[in-house]
Amino acid sequence: MKKKEIQLSRMWKYFVDATAEIIEEEGLENVTIRKVADKAGYNSATIYNYFSEISHLIFFASMKFLKSYTDEVAVYIEKGKDPIEKYLLAWECFCIHSFKQPQIFNAVFIMDLGDQPEKLLEEYYKIYPADLINIPEELKIILFERNVSKRGRSFLENALREGYIKEENVDAINELTILIWQGMFTNILNNRKSYEFQEAVKITMNYITEIVHNANLFSFKKYDHTNQQ
Asked: HTH tetR-type domain: which residues (predicted)?
């Protein structure tokens, strides 16, 4: 690593770590550029030499809180005997952690980050490669994908290749699963329901499991967006 890159990485970490401390102490909603600058020991203008907007800084700091999820999802998936079980277990792990930390998961997977958010993921793991230790290679490909739909489809494509689901049902299963998760996640994020996270996980996984296990009994008609006025 060149001297300039080392310096860049060091400064980058100062600001990300300072943001993570504020999230831990005051909550994500209380992060401001000024607070980050004060905690890191620099002025606010310096931050913009490394981050184009505060949402990127919050994203990188939130990624540090995802380590427990990325470590655990590999363990969950390993329990699955076939692609369908692995898909359901991956979703169960995602539900558990996203419902426990809705603000963090919103910052990482939902919040508008501008163009090419996947590049932010690559940048994060370049600076924090230790976060990928003990992560299986096939799972790393999915972890580098921020889009929840694409992450889910990766598991379903394995199930399709092994004949567990029909090709015409892949997109429908994926979309319905995400819609169910999003509905519960939005309720929790916006405090619309007073579920304990364990109850929220149970309800969500019951619906997702029913859809996946009964998918081949139905013929889903794909919605054609191009025909809508």
From this structure: 9-69
